[in-house]
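TL;DR need structure tokens for one chain.
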Amino acid sequence: MRDSIYTIPISEVFEPMDGCPICRLRNTLEDRCVEYIMGAAMMEPDIRVETNKAGFCSHHFHQMMGFRNRLSIALMLESHLDYLKKEIFEQKTPMLKADPKPDQVRKITGSCYVCSQIEWALSRMLDTLFAVWEKEQSFRELYAKQPVICLEHYSLLTSRARESRALSKKSQPEFLRVTTQLTKNYLDSLKADVSGFCRLYDYRSAGEKEPDEQVKTSIERAIWYLTSREEKREE
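>> reply
TL;DR here they are.
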């Protein structure tokens, strides 16, 4: 089940040519994992053991709340809170008694089941990406046409590419060069758009033509570029 949920053809991720393809891949993996958790997996004993131990981060709790299935969340919370109670307060030597060990508490409460699943699945998908890049010229051309690789995923791709056995010594430098160019080119245009937004508030710009959509959305796009997460605009 785990493999089938997270199996996504690499070509499908890169074909839309809209934003960062690794963000799109991450988002797809994330959606599938949350849907799985909020569905039948909620009652699977082995999954419940994992979610009891790992819990969920704030972002994924809010994503789960979007399903409007409060009972599913309540059932997971019930067993997770029971696990925390036993692990933190009901041990023979409670960690919070005379000698508090906050690191142990953070270890239990600072993890997220969905985040760990995404990290596991994304790692496997990147291995596939590198293998396809190595073998298929058509994919290398498709990759090079992407509008952007966000900063977070630029870091992830370049670090993993240097460690990957799927990329030959001949292919690795070209992959790094193309990926770097995609990220830098977007940064250059984004910086110009943010500067354009700042000039809107300069009295010397009074009377200039209406700014285009790229300038108007530059703040949200800059936040996304830096964090890989979209910031919703207030209308």
